[in-house]
């Protein structure tokens, strides 16, 4: 067995002995990283992750420890790992991080050189580092492209290059696609080539933009000339455009675009409108505007609608029927994979879904509470939650945060601990509850 002192000595000497090692992640703030990068003539790399994110864990396990990756990144970057839902939340918001993992490359002034999401294999991850480095002195750096775009929206060839480069930088290309479609001369708007382009870029076409206009004006022509696959996909393109507009509005924090999305969503056939999706978009819109009054009114109306829509007795009856259905299926064929669903149905599927929704929306409402009358509103939701299910972690969670906001820290901690004890471990964000409890004990914001 190797002596512990010798092992520590070897580990300390690894960088000097040339022994292979992976990425070295610094435990410092972004500001400190930028200062250090400037002093060492390096750039800054940030891995934004969450503890529940599978691709994040795969990057940490399979890519970051590689010697080739360590050699490239340790030589050229100050590397940071930030949990986007914990200590890195503020920085994640600063750079509009909405997916995980997000891989962010910055210059020493904190300007974005490259940004992309999702798991990357070794060769792609190394190539991203090289592209970030080379972009510093490039005419077509991300910053230069964004500046040039303002004055070149009638330049067809520039826009084509802009879309390609912005896509390589991991940036939103929807505005570029819209600008290019307005001036392009490569394709007739009713041609099969245009149909292929629109289908390929359906998530990059904005509601009310040139792409949607071309689609509407040539839909019948497109259907006549479409392949069997294209004919299958074409009726779905409107949904893709709708979803893409929502994603772009969220990513760019664009309230006007979100408003456009909401109006388009409402104009769909009634059977395609989901109240929870619509409310979520409206709440995001009011949050973008910092319109707390409208946010609270919308959240309160929604929660009140949920708790008055169906009586508690009817919810219990529906849950009982669901459990009996799953129980019969399990008794008839007791497959192991059916056990978790059987246990969940025993707890009451509809009741738990409703309680979780009240908890999530209620906590966001609570963050904006400024009066006793608004606290009373939250208390009515808590009262309802316990009436629906006497012992449940979701109402404990909401009540804990109300106590914490009112300065009753001891009671808040007790309830948060009880909520964690009973929280369904199948919930991928279960791990965040321990962090919230930790923040409460520190007296920090959550």
TrEMBL record:
InterPro entries assigned: AGR/TXD, Thioredoxin-like_sf, Thioredoxin_CS, Thioredoxin_domain
Keywords: Redox-active center, Signal
Entry superkingdom: Bacteria
CDD domains: TRX_family
Residue ranges that the Swiss-Prot or TrEMBL entry lists as coiled coil: none
Full protein name: Thioredoxin family protein
Lineage: Bacteria, Pseudomonadati, Bacteroidota, Flavobacteriia, Flavobacteriales
Entry-linked PANTHER family: ANTERIOR GRADIENT PROTEIN-RELATED (PTHR15337), THIOREDOXIN DOMAIN-CONTAINING PROTEIN (PTHR15337:SF11)
């Amino acid at each position: 067995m190797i002596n512990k002192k010798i092992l520590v000595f070897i580990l300390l000497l690894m960088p000097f002995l040339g022994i292979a090692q992976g990425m070295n992640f610094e435990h410092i703030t972004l500001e400190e990283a930028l200062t250090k990068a400037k002093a060492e003539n390096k750039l800054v790399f940030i891995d934004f992750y969450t503890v529940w994110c599978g691709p994040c864990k795969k990057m940490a396990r399979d890519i970051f420890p590689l010697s080739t990756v360590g050699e490239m990144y340790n030589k050229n970057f100050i590397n940071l790992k930030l949990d986007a839902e914990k200590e890195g939340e503020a920085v994640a918001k600063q750079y509009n991080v909405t997916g995980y993992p997000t891989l962010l490359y910055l210059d020493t002034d904190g300007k974005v050189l490259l940004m992309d999401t999702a798991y990357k294999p070794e060769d792609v991850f190394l190539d991203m580092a090289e592209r970030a480095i080379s972009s510093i002195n490039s005419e077509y750096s991300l910053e230069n492209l964004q500046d040039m775009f303002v004055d070149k929206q009638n330049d067809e060839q520039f826009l084509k290059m802009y879309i390609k480069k912005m896509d390589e930088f991991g940036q939103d290309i929807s505005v570029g696609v819209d600008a290019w479609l307005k001036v392009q001369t490569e394709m007739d708007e009713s041609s099969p080539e245009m149909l292929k382009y629109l289908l390929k870029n359906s998530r990059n076409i904005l509601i009310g933009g040139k792409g949607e206009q071309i689609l509407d004006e040539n839909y019948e022509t497109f259907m006549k000339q479409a392949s069997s696959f294209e004919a299958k996909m074409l009726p779905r393109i409107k949904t893709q455009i709708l979803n893409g507009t929502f994603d772009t509005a969220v990513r760019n924090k664009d309230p006007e675009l979100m408003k456009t999305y909401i109006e388009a969503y409402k104009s769909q056939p009634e059977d395609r409108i989901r109240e929870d999706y619509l409310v979520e978009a409206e709440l995001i819109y009011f949050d973008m505007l910092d319109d707390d009054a409208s946010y609270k009114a919308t959240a309160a109306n929604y929660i009140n609608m949920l708790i008055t829509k169906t009586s508690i007795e009817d919810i219990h009856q529906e849950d009982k029927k669901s459990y009996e259905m799953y129980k019969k299926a399990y008794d008839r064929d007791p497959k192991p994979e059916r056990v978790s669903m059987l246990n969940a149905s025993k707890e009451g599927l509809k009741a738990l879904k409703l309680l979780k929704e009240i908890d999530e929306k209620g906590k966001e409402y609570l963050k904006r509470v400024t009066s006793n009358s608004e606290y009373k509103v939250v208390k009515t939701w808590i009262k309802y939650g316990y009436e629906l299910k006497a012992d449940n972690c979701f109402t404990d969670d909401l009540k804990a945060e109300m106590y914490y906001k009112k300065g009753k820290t001891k009671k808040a901690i007790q309830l948060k601990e009880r909520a964690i004890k009973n929280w369904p471990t199948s919930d991928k964000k279960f791990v965040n509850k321990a962090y919230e409890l930790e923040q409460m004990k520190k007296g920090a914001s959550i």
